[in-house]
Specification:
It contains eight helices and seven strands, in the order H-H-H-E-E-E-H-E-H-E-H-E-H-E-H. It has 210 residues and is an alpha/beta fold. It has two domains: 49 residues, RecR Domain 1 (Helicase, Ruva Protein, domain 3, Orthogonal Bundle), CATH 1.10.8; 132 residues, 3-Layer(aba) Sandwich (Dna Topoisomerase Vi A Subunit, Chain: A, domain 2). The strands form two sheets. The chain has a five-stranded mixed sheet. The protein has a two-stranded antiparallel sheet with strand order 1-2. Helix 1 packs across helix 2 and helix 4 crosses helix 7. It is elongated.
């Protein structure tokens, strides 16, 4: 079958864009044709920004958030409450919670959630570093702010079991975020209230177990 593309170069570029999450082939073609209409300097700037991102981006040595430096700007902010840690799945959740302006502590980015069907186990996530961080002292509360899905709840419970012996208060965001919802898609007011109205994890787990 003949290719619908008049150029193999065009087809290759479309294939690369279509490999990105949420980008179908029609959207990929539209993006590629847009790039073709730009002057070479603009395209070079676009390509250079992506390569610079890939080569120079860092992950905070404390919380694993994306950063330009070894320690991210949030962890380096002396005005934030270092005794309060909010555990999130990835960087998008950090950005979503920061938009609410309702949280003044620090974060811990897991890099995913436990999902056996996808081959992701506890060892693939930043859970051991969270346990080490909580056990080092100075942490009074860990807030679990993972998506209200089966995988999120599994990860919450695993972390709870790991941190419980350390004597640190463990809470979970209120279920203002509907079951099955992902944190990044919650509106700012709902997400902000969910953090402010968080509950002790052991109480929440008892309700979920019934």
């Amino acid at each position: 079958m003949n290719s619908p593309y008049p150029s193999s170069l065009l087809e290759n570029a479309v294939n690369e864009f279509a490999g990105l999450p949420g980008i179908g082939r029609k959207s990929a073609l539209r993006l590629v044709l847009h790039l073709l209409r730009l002057d070479e300097e603009r395209v070079a700037g676009f390509a250079g920004a992506v390569m610079k991102l890939k080569r120079e981006i860092k992950y905070c040595s404390l919380c694993h958030n994306i950063s330009d430096t070894e320690v991210c700007s949030i962890c380096a902010d002396g005005g934030r409450d270092g005794s309060l840690i909010c555990v999130v799945e990835n960087v998008k959740e950090v950005m979503a919670i920061e938009k609410t302006a309702q949280f003044g502590g620090l974060y811990h980015v897991l890099g995913g959630i436990i999902s056996p069907i996808d081959g992701i186990g506890p060892a693939d996530l930043e859970i051991a570093s969270l346990e080490k961080r909580a056990g080092a002292g100075g942490i009074r509360e860990v807030i679990l702010a993972l998506s209200a899905t089966m995988e999120g709840d599994t990860t919450n419970f695993y972390i709870y079991r790991k941190l419980q012996p350390l004597g640190v208060k463990i809470s979970i965001i209120a279920r203002g975020v509907s079951i099955g919802d992902e944190i990044e898609y919650a509106d700012e007011v709902t997400l902000g209230r969910s953090i402010l109205n968080r509950t002790p994890f052991n109480e929440s787990y008892k309700l979920l177990s019934k």
